[in-house]
Amino acid sequence: MHFQDWLETPQGYYVLQWALHKHELLLADVFGFNAVQVGLPRYDFLRGNRMPFRFHCDESGLVDVRAVPGHLPFASQSVDLVVLPHVLEFADNPHHVLREVERVLVPEGQVVVTGFNPFSLWGVRRRLSRHPLADPPWDGRYISVPRLKDWFALLGFETRGGAFGRYAPPFRQEKWLNRSRFLEAAGDRWWPYGGAVYVLQAIKRQAGMRLVTPTWHDRKARAKAMVAVTQRNGQ
């Protein structure tokens, strides 16, 4: 089973609903011209954002831009926002993926990462699994928030915000997940760092640099040029 197929199971949809809602809240006030979603092309994590040019990037042929996460076909400092929904934990070299994101982001550009929390009931389920590398989502290499923040700092990102969510045990049946809904409010209040998944938002900073923003018309022209390039690459 592919991870995207797992997201359509009751267990996966339970996680997906929360992540999509959090992206809508986080991205509503992120402005610019070019936004890129890497991975999970069936789901629109950019739907709450209002940038004029939004691209979906994946290895499949059913996207705007066909590419692997570690080699994004965008010019350096050409993208305002990159979202990585469950990309890093399934990447062979997650730190390289973040370096590539840092390359394509403009100064003050933003990245939003979604991942599974290893310090949760779901993380415990993965560690106790007899075959942890066999089926999604247990075949991923979960990255903790403190570790991800360290990676951000090394690449010159400043963590801006984020959230944990989904506190029910990893039940497979929808009825048990529904019966555990009361844990959401309790988890947010009493053990917020124990959520099954997290969303973390960071901004690309460049120390000692005075940011000179191009005029609106110049940036719009550059954004349109990138549209033409990515469309040719996606053919």
From TrEMBL:
Annotated Methyltransferase type domain ranges read 69-113
Family annotation (Pfam families): Methyltransf_11
What the entry lists under SUPFAM superfamilies is as follows: S-adenosyl-L-methionine-dependent methyltransferases
Instruction: Cite a single GO BP annotation.
Output: methylation
Q: Which GO terms describe its molecular function?
A: S-adenosylmethionine-dependent methyltransferase activity
Q: Which residues form the signal peptide?
A: none
Q: Is Transferase among this UniProt entry's keywords? A: yes
Gene3D superfamilies hit by this protein: Vaccinia Virus protein VP39
Task: Recite the UniProt keywords alphabetically.
Answer: Methyltransferase, Transferase
Protein name, please?
A: Methyltransferase type 11
